[in-house]
Structure formats: structure tokens, C-alpha cells
Write a structure and sequence with these properties.
Length: 161
């Protein structure tokens, strides 16, 4: 067992003890995971990018929804529904990345509605955040574009389902 002193980003010093665990080596991918020359990207790379976008959204929701429920601004059932919508999208993206069969059209309809509502909300909220200095215009545009790419992928999958 090893112990080490760690200084966290907030300045607090902590002592961490325990056996050092090593991460298992990743298996070589059959398809390249880097963007292709000429600006294209593999489907696996795109799905990874979309999963990262939805993962960030899930983290934001977990933080905000907990605060809003505690403050009485949101019902716990509504928060749970919002979190389960995002979890469902993450699972579908994982399924697609593994190459397994995707769900039926009605499931995509639900996910498309959730992402479309999120994009609409961002278009309403982000301009005020930019004006208040809590977010840059470039970051707001990037986040909306990433979520729009998720919406586009879901719509494409629905058409082929």
C-alpha cells in the first residue's frame, strides 16, 4: 500500500492511501479513431465526440437539477425524467459505437424531442450568460453546434430505423 500527499485544485491538502491500480491496456481499434484527412471523421470518432457532448450535458444537469430541487425550483420527478432522457441518449450512442442494433423509431422520437428542447433552451439562456460574462460567445456557439450535431445524428438514425 502506498500513501501520498495530494494538493487539490481548491488548495486543500489530502493524504491518499491505497494500492496503486493500473488501468488495463486498451485494445487496438479496428478502425482509426482520429479524424480522417480532408476534414472527414470516422463514425466511431463522431460517436465518441457526441458521447462527450452528452456526457457534459449529463454532468451539468446533475449539478443544476440537484440545486434546483433543493431550492424548490424543480420537482424531483421532473429532474429524474430529465436525467433519464440524457442517460437514454448516452446508452444509444454507446450501442451504436459497439455496432449493435439500435432501438425503434418511437424511441428516437422521444430523444429527438429532448435534444430539440435543450437546444431551444440554450438559445434562450446563453445570450444572457454571454452578456453577464459567465460564458464567451464562442463557447455558447460551440455548445449549441455540438448539441445540434447530436440532434442531426438522432434524426439520421430515426430515418434508417
Amino acid at each position: 500500500m502506498t500513501c501520498s500527499r495530494v494538493t487539490l485544485p481548491n488548495g486543500v491538502t489530502a493524504i491518499v492511501c491505497g494500492p496503486r491500480r493500473r488501468r488495463p491496456a486498451k485494445a487496438a481499434a479496428a478502425e482509426p479513431s482520429l479524424p480522417l484527412e480532408g476534414g472527414g471523421e470516422t463514425e466511431s470518432f463522431r460517436l465518441g465526440r457526441l458521447m462527450a457532448c452528452i456526457g457534459r450535458e449529463a454532468g451539468k444537469r446533475r449539478t443544476l437539477y440537484a440545486r434546483w430541487v433543493a431550492a424548490g425550483r424543480m420537482m424531483p420527478e421532473t429532474a429524474e425524467r430529465g436525467l433519464s432522457e440524457i442517460a437514454e441518449i448516452v446508452e444509444v450512442l454507446r450501442t451504436a459505437r459497439r455496432g449493435e442494433p439500435l432501438p425503434r423509431k418511437h424511441v428516437f422520437d422521444r430523444m429527438i424531442g429532448a435534444v430539440a428542447r435543450e437546444i431551444d433552451q440554450r438559445r434562450r439562456v446563453y445570450p444572457k450568460m454571454v452578456a453577464d460574462g459567465r460564458m464567451t460567445g464562442a463557447a455558447a456557439d460551440r455548445e449549441i453546434a455540438e448539441m445540434a450535431d447530436v440532434l442531426l445524428w438522432l434524426q439520421q438514425q430515426r430515418r434508417t430505423a
